[in-house]
Amino acid sequence: MEMMVQTTWLEQARRLISQYEAATLALRQQAEPVEVHAYRIAARRLLALLALWRPLIHQPGLERRLLRATATLSALRDAQVYEERFGGKPHGLSVPPVPMLTVRLDRWLDRLALVPADFNPLPLFQMQLALRLADGLAEPGLDAASVSDKCQLRHWHKLRLILKQTRYGVELLLDQGAGDPAWLSMLVSWQERLGQLQDGRQWLKRLGRKRGNDKRQRQQQRLKAAMHCQLQQLDCQQAELVGLRMAMQRVV
Questions:
Q1: Residues 173-189 pLDDT 10s
Q2: pTM of the prediction?
Q3: Secondary structure letter of residue 59 according to DSSP
Q4: Please, are residues 98 and 27 in contact by the beta-carbon 8 Å criterion?
Q5: C-alpha to C-alpha distance for 141 and 94, rounded to whole angstroms
Q6: From the CB of residue 168, how many other CB atoms can be counted at a distance below 10 Å?
Q7: What angle do the packed helices 122-138 and 239-249 form, to 10 degrees?
Q8: Residues 96, 72 contacting (CB under 8 angstroms)
Q9: Number of helices and strands (H, E) in the chain?
Q10: Model pLDDT for residues 82-91, shown as the tens digit of each residue
Q11: Judging by beta carbons within 10 Å of its beta carbon (0-12, 13-18, 19+), is residue 96 exposed, middle or buried?
């Protein structure tokens, strides 16, 4: 039984590393929206895997390289989404280099193979995800009645990043038979909602930098009105996230 558990940990890790390597190769060949999106997802899933085994196995240099790679692709991804929505001239952004990290990941796998077979990181990891979500929800700035739209947008963006990593963490839990599939469904739904809000935030910035003709001004006004409505809806719905946090804190 112990050998089966140990193999499961290693199989999970090797599968996610293989997915990252495939996404890296695809992005190096071409940087269309599909490849950029796939790489960022693979990198975030790998970051969740590293967080699962931290601090037992901790390679901060490896995590920094992955974080830097996903961050440098953000501007390219935003430009691609903007072009799909509004058209216009090509963005002209170059594709930043993305690391394969083969040596570092092989070293990390070697260390994972040394972990005792009966060691289970899942309860602690689930609690870590829940507490991080609790911290994000406790941040001031999410109350639509007391703060400006600009302040709310900034704080929902921070919470969006937390929910994104929580989503990939929950995927790891479910892959090992822990957690609840309903958590993942809720996180995916919230990720889509906040992703739409973030897209609108980026489009508004870009429209503001364009020459202000009547068409641009009308687009800006429509976007502002739609985002204000979204913020009001999110304010009413955030109790769902409190319930999710409470459910995740009940570690069995």
A1: 999 999 999 999 999 99
A2: 0.88
A3: -
A4: yes
A5: 35
A6: 22
A7: 150
A8: yes
A9: 10, 0
A10: 777 766 655 6
A11: middle
